[in-house]
Amino acid sequence: MSTQNAVEMFVGGLVLDPNTQAPVIVLKDESGNLSLPIWIGIAEATSIASAIKQVTMARPLTHDLMNDVFIELGIKVERVVITELKESTYFAELVLAFGDKAIILDARPSDAIALALRATAPIYVTQQVLDQAKLSLPPNFQVPAGTGKPEEGGEEEEAEQGGAKTDLKHVDKDKWTEILDNLDPEDFKYKM
């Protein structure tokens, strides 16, 4: 996928949806004028958070393992492109380089972003997806700013209340280690 009609975006925050308590990754453009929230699973949020905070786990997470395999095989993550929004589901492509060969794989945005963060690869969103996302968000939806570091204690209180302003990006490295160490395997099961 060409990035000609795409906007480069960065992880601007990781927040909790106040209604569903689901993690939401917020992508922002360089100017901060464009925001794209994508609802993701807890396992992917944990993986993305550990990459953002550079938390080293005792054992590699799936995305760490994939990144290590890519490195060992000489495969480079070139970029991630979020290409489509269909029926409230985002689609992405993971663009890899293997020698002089380009490999494009279908991926969930959360997995692709987790790999991009580890490989320091750029993340793009097509203009079409950005336009569609504007139309599909509820009119009262606000992306939390998450630009300032919360005062001590405020973040935990907001997390317990499930407030939309819980910006997990600003939790310090030691706190993430504690959070990740205390996760229960039941937290990673998807309920059907």
Question: What brief labels describe this structure?
Answer:
192 residues; alpha+beta; Bifunctional nuclease domain; seven-stranded mixed β-sheet; 6 helices; 29% strand
Please explain how this structure is put together.
With 192 residues, the chain is α+β, with helices and mostly antiparallel strands. The chain has one domain: Roll (Bifunctional nuclease domain), CATH 3.10.690.10. The protein is 32% helix and 29% strand. It has helices at residues 42-52, 62-73, 109-119, 127-136, 154-161, 173-181, and strands at residues 6-16, 23-29, 35-39, 75-86, 89-98, 101-107, 123-126. The chain has a seven-stranded mixed β-sheet with strand order 3-2-1-7-4-5-6. Strand 2 (23-29) and strand 3 form a beta hairpin. The longest helix has 12 residues, at 62-73. Residues 143-168 and 185-192 have low confidence and may be disordered.
Could you tell me the strand content as a percent range? 25-35%
Q: In the CATH hierarchy, what is the architecture at level 2?
A: Roll
Instruction: Give a count of the beta strands, DSSP E runs of length 2 or more.
Output: 7
Rounded to the nearest angstrom, the radius of gyration is 17 Å
Strand neighbour order, sheet with most strands: 3-2-1-7-4-5-6
Order of helices and strands: EEEHHEEEHEHHH
CATH topology: Bifunctional nuclease domain
By DSSP (H or I, 4+ residues per run), the number of helices equals 6
Which CATH first-tier class would you pick?
Answer: Alpha Beta
Give the end-to-end Cα distance, rounded to a whole number of Å. Answer: 33 Å
Describe the sheet with the most strands.
7 strands, mixed
Count of folded domains:
1
Shape: globular
Low-confidence stretches: 143-168, 185-192
